[in-house]
Amino acid sequence: MRKYFRVIDGQKPIKQNYFSLVFFRDDRVRGKVSRLRWMWLCLIELLFGEEILESLVTTASVSGCPEDKDPERKYGKPQQLNLHIPSGIFTNLLRKEIIQVLYYKYYLQYLFIRPIAEPYENKNTYVIDVTRDRFRLDKGLLYLVIAFRRVYIFSALLFNIVVDLVVYLISSSLEAAIVAAVLTESIRRIFKI
Fold this sequence. Notes:
The protein has a domain at about 20-145. The longest helix is centred in the last third of the chain and has 28 residues, at about 145-170. The protein has about 190 residues and is mostly helical. About 50% of the residues lie in helices and about 5% in strands. The model has no long low-confidence stretch (mean pLDDT about 90). It has 7 helices and 4 strands.
């Protein structure tokens, strides 16, 4: 009989609290986005974050652009923020808000995407026009996709459980709680259309 060899890896794992990264502003963003606006951006991100991640991963498979060569293939294909958003009924309705999420959260907070040239902030009109600016995924951060996806899935699960508990506590009916769970999940999935 062969002896079993145990496999070990002494490398320390990456320890990052992704929930705090998603839900709390850091110093780069705190002065630019109010708490109320941040909560709104978090809600939009929770609804569309998985799709945004899929789109960014897709563009990461291609590299390079004429004005900024990338011979080491460190970055994904550069595109305007609008082009990083997958087309859909609800993504098209909330496109302007998703652009805010991409800029303030994926660019400034997470450093997940990077612009080829620094966007210009017009301090007179309080507008950052990124129409001509292209952003690309930093491929060195692709490992974060799984962690962010877990945050989005867990948040949806937690929201569904809270809704179910509230409905059950108000109605004392298990059937009503089940209907609430089905409706909540159905609404979440409808937003993916």
